[in-house]
Amino acid sequence: MCLGPLIRVCYTLPCQCHRLHKMAAESLTSIKSSDDNIQIVNQLLLPHTTEWLEIDTIEQAHDAIKTMKIRGAPAIASLAALSVSQHLTRALRAADPPPEFLSSPESLAAHVSTILDFLFTARPTAVNLGAATRRLSRTLQSSVKAGKDVRAIAEDLIGDGRLVAAEDVGRNKAMAKWGGDWLAEQVKGGGGSGDGLNVLTVCNTGSLATSGYGTALGLITYLHETGKLGRAYYTQTAPYHQGSRLTALELKTLQIPSTMIVDTMVGSLFQHHRIHAVAVGADRIAANGDTANKIGTYNAAVLAARHNIPFIVVAPVTTVDLDVADGSGIPIEHRPPLEACVVRGALYPPSVDAQGNRAQAAVMITPEGLDGIYNPSFDVTPAELITAIVTEKGVAVKGSDGKFDLSNVV
Ligand code: MRU
Known about the structure:
The chain is 39% helix and 15% strand. It has helices spanning 4-9, 14-26, 58-66, 73-93, 105-120, 127-145, 150-186, 216-225, 242-253, 266-272, 297-306, and strands at residues 31-34, 37-41, 52-54, 197-201, 229-235, 258-261, 277-280, 284-286, 291-294, 311-314, 320-321, 342-343, 363-364, 378-381, 388-391, 394-397. The strands form four sheets. It has a seven-stranded mixed sheet with strand order 6-5-4-7-10-15-16. A four-stranded mixed sheet has the order 11-8-9-14, with helices on one face. Strands 1-2-3 form a three-stranded antiparallel sheet, with helices on one face. It is globular. Residues 71-74, 126, 203, 205, 209-210, 215, 242, 281-283, 293-294, 377 line the site of 5-S-methyl-1-O-phosphono-5-thio-D-ribulose.
């Protein structure tokens, strides 16, 4: 069903609009889960192929995160937490014989701790994954300490794992509203008059990167829904092309006016077009506001500062890591060098389906056997280049000392 014309018509019909937006957004789901079933959309194959993968084990969840079949800081945390819920739900149902680790609270605690440690290793930079595994670890400890039996401890963990995923959408909508209203207020000409706000984003931070709605892309969606957006701009985001593959798909599905640029065009865009703000997500925000996000974010921040364009980071509280003082303490993931040599990343060499089709063949864009390839997945934007940090709790700007105080937004 084509939603495009209906969505345009319904701008004057708020109720219908909400319903149709919901339908469009649902088609962009990264994870479907009910009871003990989990499916993820294989983000390596989007936008041309929509393949749903069953996740049945902790190992499959770990692999899906590591190989970026699912990606985006909140989405990987949700999958990790849901996979723990699934594992324990199935264990409680496995009657004859029940798994050995259900024999006592101690053995359950040891088993779950091993699983959480393993999931934590899937990707190093996004702190949301660690926040989710730490949260489940705390639930485990307090249930054991409360003297609960094995079943009750497992049920607490199952419930909490599901909550990690379920809570994401509401907080995304909250931060989108905080950030969108704040930006419209800051920028003269935004907020209903003039041509609306033009906002550049990097990578993909929408429904596919979260449990729904998105962070920076949520802010853009909110501006669109409230009639304050002029146009969204987004970088292709090499080498994984989260922008041209995923953000493009999301903006197109939601019928949000948008323009893609190649990563190297940010400076040119700022020179030749009125851009009111840059809004990006984050994988980890240090206590001083330094922010790790997709490679290329720092370039955009430097250019935004040069052009006096507000640079906004939009991320949930779980992305703020107060244990890390500044960006130098954020671990930066380096992806396999080969992923920078191909279009379609991890699918090289291409997978072959049962019929022998190589439909998703990766294309090599370098000579074979290059020995010098630098492929960090993230960079760190220093706090001095960031205008505002938005979480579900509100908007933090720098004080008169030029420093962020994140205590009000965590
Ligand atoms: O390597 P990825 O695709 O997982 O990187 C994603 C990003 O950098 C996002 O900007 C970040 O995780 C925030 S997603 C709401």
